[in-house]
Amino acid sequence: MKHVARKRFGQHFLRDLAVIDAIVRAIDPRPGQAMVEIGPGLAALTQPLAERLGRLTVIELDRDLAGRLRAHAQLDVIEADVLKVDFARIAIAPPATQLRICGNLPYNISTPILFHLLAFASRIQDQHFMLQKEVIDRMVAAPATADYGRLSVMLQWRYALENLLTVPPQAFEPPPRVHSAVVRMTPRAEFAPLNADAFSELVQVAFSQRRKLLRHTLGRWLDARGFGGHFDVQRRAEEVPVPEYVALAVAAKLNG
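Above: the chain's sequence. Below: its structure in token form.
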């Protein structure tokens, strides 16, 4: 029976063979590597990945799709909401093993998934995700651009990001109303060990009124916390590069 895409799960199934091949080549899966695919759907990426890896763990929320996936002998199926999955405890990986994670993420919850995975970055070798193109534009954005914001700062603090390719709507069934893209996210070996929640609050406050100078937002937030260090608040949030936000968080003792 043909599976009908469900809007509540944000389902758009990849079907373009050339795009699938390009993504698999970008991921470059090798036999024996510990890999997790989020949202395998109709297994367009799942099948070629499993063939190259030998074994693949998949996380699927849709009960019907999870049932179909269990028929594949090479798959370990976790039927769950990915936002509730503890990636540090996935059974395929002993403590010393680095996970590789990939997936065509549901566009309606892609940002929460990216933030959820931040907590497990130390256990991750790399991540390859299909996302809405405008989300990836924000992820990789440079300071002093319209796309630069909270998502840019939070992810660039912890990952090196690379926009790999753009995917048109017609590569999916049903086609989304937006263009998509594929991003590679590699956790940084050198990074400031911040408390992610506290750092997120700092960055969110900074960008809460991005047209105003930071003295109206972040400056007041820092004063309320008794911050006695120096930070130039006569700028707008988008003018501050990631290393300066990180240095401020360290100075404000938001270490993890």
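The first helix runs from residue 17 to 27.
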